[in-house]
Design goal:
The protein is α+β, with helices and mostly antiparallel strands. Helix content is 39%, strand content 23%. Strands 5-1-6 form a three-stranded antiparallel β-sheet. It has a three-stranded antiparallel β-sheet with strand order 2-3-4, with helices on both faces. Strand 3 and strand 4 form a beta hairpin. The longest helix is centred in the C-terminal third of the chain and has 17 residues. The model has no long low-confidence stretch (mean pLDDT 93).
C-alpha cells in the first residue's frame, strides 16, 4: 500500500520544486502560521490519504486523525487561510502538523503568503 501511495503522488520527472532562498526555523514557521496570510501548495504538489497514512509528493507519513483532516483540507483547497485554526487538535497533533509543514516548506512543496 505504501508503494502505491508513494507512486501515485510522486512528482513527474520534469517537475522542480523551489525551496525558499532562506530556510525558516521550526519556531519561526510556527509563529508565521499564527499570522494573517495564506498557506499554499506548490502547483505540482500531489497528495493522497489512505487509512491513517498520508502520501505527499512521494513520501508516506503515518499521522494522527487531526493531521489527516488538515492535510485533506490543504490538498482539496490547495491553500488555507492563516492563521490556522487549532480545530480541537491537542499539543502533540499541533506539533506533528507543524513539523510536517516545516519539512514541506523547506522542500519547496508549499509556501507562505502574508496578508
Amino acid at each position: 500500500e505504501d508503494f502505491v501511495g508513494c507512486f501515485l503522488t510522486r512528482p513527474k520527472p520534469q517537475v522542480q520544486f523551489h525551496p525558499p532562498g532562506r530556510p525558516i526555523t521550526l519556531d519561526a514557521l510556527a509563529r508565521r502560521l499564527r499570522e494573517p496570510g495564506r498557506l499554499t501548495l506548490a502547483l505540482p504538489s500531489r497528495g493522497l490519504v489512505r487509512g491513517d497514512r498520508l502520501f505527499f509528493n512521494g513520501e508516506a507519513h503515518e499521522v494522527s486523525l487531526a493531521t489527516l483532516e488538515r492535510f485533506q483540507a490543504l490538498v482539496r483547497e490547495r491553500s488555507l487561510p492563516l492563521p490556522l485554526a487549532r480545530g480541537g487538535a491537542d499539543a502533540s497533533d499541533e506539533e506533528e502538523w507543524i513539523e510536517l509543514l516545516h519539512g514541506w516548506h523547506g522542500a519547496g512543496y508549499l509556501g507562505l503568503q502574508r496578508a
